[in-house]
Amino acid sequence: MKDYFVLKQDERLTDAPELLDARKQVNSRDIHLTSAHKLADTMFFKVKAEKESSFPDVMDRHLYLISERLKRLVELYAPDTIFKLTPLIDMAHRRQHNYYLPIFEEVSALSPNSELAGDGRVIRKLVLQGDQLTGKRIFKIKESEKPLIVVRLDVAESILRRDFEGVQLVRVLVE
Predict the structure, then answer these.
(1) DSSP 8-state class, residue 74
(2) With 131 labelled, which of 29, 50, 152, 173 sits at a CA distance of 20 to 30 A?
(3) Model pTM?
(4) CA distance linking residue 103 with residue 82, whole number of Å
(5) Going by C-beta distance under 8 Å and a sequence separation of 6 or more, which residues neighbour residue 109?
(6) Residue 1: its pLDDT value, please?
(7) Strand partners of residue 59
(8) How far is CA 129 from CA 3, 108, 117, 123, 145, in A?
(9) Total number of domains constituting the chain
């Protein structure tokens, strides 16, 4: 059985830029392979950032965005992923960073032992069913309201070897 990890923005990162009006521009119901055509190929977002703000390789506070560097790695492991270019514009400091909104395959692999909160769309404790993960390298948990991106061990190792910034990998229980 393979090990899997949630790929997310490092929680210790406090100076990441904040997207402005992201939810007004993007309907989260369209961030799926079947409705990705409803999203523009390029979406510009203004950000609020400090002069010293670091732009991490994963941003997951409002939308799930990845850097150009991380996009190249994702393309190697999940070539069917759709990417929407999302330049982040910091008007106050006159700079722009290109990010991508990845639209991953969604997998329904929650174990009955997962702990859900509220209406069942918020996952408190993630436990995956191993038999649903065969051949899956990078995917989104279908049942999660918030983008929950999971990567297999080989992808996680590849990420760690490349010294990405502001990235956190959290082991997932698999049964």
Answers:
(1) H
(2) 29
(3) 0.93
(4) 5
(5) 128, 129, 132, 133, 136, 141
(6) 56
(7) 65
(8) 12, 9, 19, 15, 19
(9) 1
Among residues 19, 13, 100, 85, which one has the least CA distance to residue 52? 13
Closest to 157 in 3D by CA, of 39, 7, 1? 7
Identify the domain containing residue 137 by its residue range.
4-174
Strands annotated E in 71-166: 82-90, 95-103, 106-107, 115-117, 122-125, 127-128, 138-141, 149-152
Within the chain, how many helices (H) and strands (E) appear? 3, 14
Please name which of 106, 111, 116, 175 lies closest in space to residue 138, comparing C-alpha atoms: 106
Tokens 């523009």 sit on residue: 40
Q: What is the pLDDT of residues 74-95, one digit of tens each?
A: 999 999 999 999 999 999 999 9
Q: List the structure tokens of 21.
A: 């009006």
* Contacts by residues 141-146 (CB-CB < 8 Å, ≥ 24 positions apart): 141/106, 141/107, 141/109, 141/110, 142/106, 142/107, 142/108, 143/108, 143/110, 145/121, 146/60, 146/122
